[in-house]
């Protein structure tokens, strides 16, 4: 007997049903994880250039259909879908000096850009009730800082429409559009047309195939292993949570040494960052030597280049997958030793396509944990110790950013629902390693995480000063 297709059940002819990963992000965002924020500190008053900024945002929505889509929910068919509108519609919200001052007054020792980023990470427009009508995928806000000489422009997006590659391309395209308009040149053309398919619909044939028995065994294995993982000490597991961030910045000379150390050993920076976090976390728990503990590390990788057809960085949406590895730390290990093991484990999993074949399994377990927080330690919803990205963003900080008044920017996603204890968003910016480290508060305190990040920095810098041993490379 034939069954009606999904399209026949949708509310709107311009709708595209969400894929499994996108649907999981809808569930996660409601709980507080996956609110992507890009905050830009500018010395040029955007209110005086409102027309240019608004035109640039509208061009982005025109070029990228998912940015001019709205999230709809059909309660009858229990289907979430993106409904794409024919015209751009984004409106820019404003906060004056007085309103911004109220947001900043709680923490005088933290930069305004930092505090506004945290404020936006905890502004959740995607609640369950809003799905009964429609929800925008992107919001824009301008904050006037109290000194009256600088402003913060913020874009807040739903993770289903914005992975890290999307956020990076969005920033670059926005600045390019504003600079092009400033010079009176012809506007740039990016990809236009219909919204791209979900990642599950673009996977190469057979790569995600797995027998029912294998899938069941893998789900069981992930579940059992997760119960054995060690977490950072929880400070307050009962109070309502929010997302906070700490920043890790390494100077140019030390950054060059760290990157040279990675290159000499044939690994990427993600291996060094993950290793530094594991060693710092183990030290913070005052483990005695040789007391082994297992830690979970999630590495996110961009799948655009291997999809069918391949997508470019300018195809906006969520096209990352992840690999979960566990690593044992006993104390006393050297950073490069751990980094090499971690990166090798990750690449072995990736070479066997585990980031594709395990996608449905990890989505399933993520959903079960959200529905049953008690399955995680102290109902914390912590899935692992740390998450890192396989590839580091490189930003040379060119004249174009200065041209439109950009002094600084920060970008990341919220993580106070289901997530790791610390998620690292790393960038090499103007030659410096600049990491935005995201964590759930008050499950972890700012002091606790600042100490962890400071220890990570010391471990990385000390390792960068280590002379490469040829036997170690071999």
From TrEMBL:
Entries under InterPro entries matching the protein: CAT-like_dom_sf
Superkingdom classification of source: Eukaryota
PANTHER family found in the cross-reference section: CONDENSATION DOMAIN-CONTAINING PROTEIN, GATA ZINC FINGER PROTEIN-RELATED
This protein's name: Uncharacterized protein
Protein species of origin: Hibiscus sabdariffa (roselle)
Classification of source organism: Eukaryota, Viridiplantae, Streptophyta, Embryophyta, Tracheophyta
């Amino acid at each position: 007997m034939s069954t009606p297709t999904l399209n026949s059940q949708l509310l709107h002819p311009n709708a595209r049903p969400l894929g499994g990963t996108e649907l999981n992000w809808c569930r996660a965002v409601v709980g507080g994880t996956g609110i992507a924020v890009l905050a830009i500190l500018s010395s040029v008053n955007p209110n005086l250039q409102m027309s240019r900024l608004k035109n640039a945002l509208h061009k982005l929505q025109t070029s990228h259909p998912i940015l001019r889509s709205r999230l709809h929910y059909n309660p009858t068919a229990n289907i979430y879908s993106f409904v794409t509108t024919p015209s751009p519609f984004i409106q820019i919200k404003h906060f004056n000096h007085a309103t911004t001052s109220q947001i900043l007054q709680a923490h005088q020792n933290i930069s305004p850009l930092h505090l506004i980023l945290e404020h936006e990470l905890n502004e959740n427009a995607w609640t369950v009730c809003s799905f009964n009508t429609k929800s925008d995928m992107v919001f824009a806000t301008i904050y006037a800082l109290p000194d009256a000489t600088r402003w913060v422009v913020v874009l807040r997006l739903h993770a289903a429409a914005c992975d890290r590659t999307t956020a990076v391309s969005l920033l670059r395209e926005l600045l390019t559009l504003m600079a092009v308009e400033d010079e009176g040149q012809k506007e740039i053309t990016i990809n236009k047309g219909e919204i791209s398919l979900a990642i599950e619909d673009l996977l190469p044939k057979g790569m995600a195939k797995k027998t029912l028995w294998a899938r069941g065994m893998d789900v069981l294995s992930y579940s059992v292993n997760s119960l054995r993982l060690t977490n950072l000490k929880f400070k307050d597991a009962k109070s309502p949570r929010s997302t906070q961030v700490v920043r890790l910045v390494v100077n140019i000379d030390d950054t060059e040494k760290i990157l040279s150390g990675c290159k000499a050993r044939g690994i990427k920076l993600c291996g060094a960052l993950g290793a530094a976090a594991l060693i710092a976390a183990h030290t913070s728990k005052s483990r005695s030597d040789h007391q082994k503990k297992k830690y979970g590390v999630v590495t996110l990788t961009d799948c655009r280049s291997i999809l069918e057809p391949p997508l470019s960085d300018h195809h906006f949406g969520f096209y990352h997958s992840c690999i979960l590895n566990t690593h044992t730390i006993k104390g006393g290990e050297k950073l490069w030793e751990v980094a090499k093991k971690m990166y090798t484990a990750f690449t072995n999993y990736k070479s066997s396509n585990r980031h594709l074949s395990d996608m449905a399994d990890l989505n399933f377990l993520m959903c079960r944990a959200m529905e049953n927080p008690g399955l995680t330690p102290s109902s914390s919803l912590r899935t692992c110790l740390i998450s890192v990205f396989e590839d580091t963003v490189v930003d040379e900080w060119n004249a174009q950013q200065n041209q439109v008044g950009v002094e600084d920017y920060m970008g990341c996603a919220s993580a106070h629902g289901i997530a790791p204890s610390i998620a690292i968003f790393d960038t090499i910016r103007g030659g410096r390693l600049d990491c935005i480290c995201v964590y759930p508060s008050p499950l972890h305190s700012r002091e606790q995480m600042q100490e962890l990040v400071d220890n990570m920095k010391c471990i990385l810098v000390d390792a960068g000063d280590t002379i490469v041993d040829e036997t170690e490379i071999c």
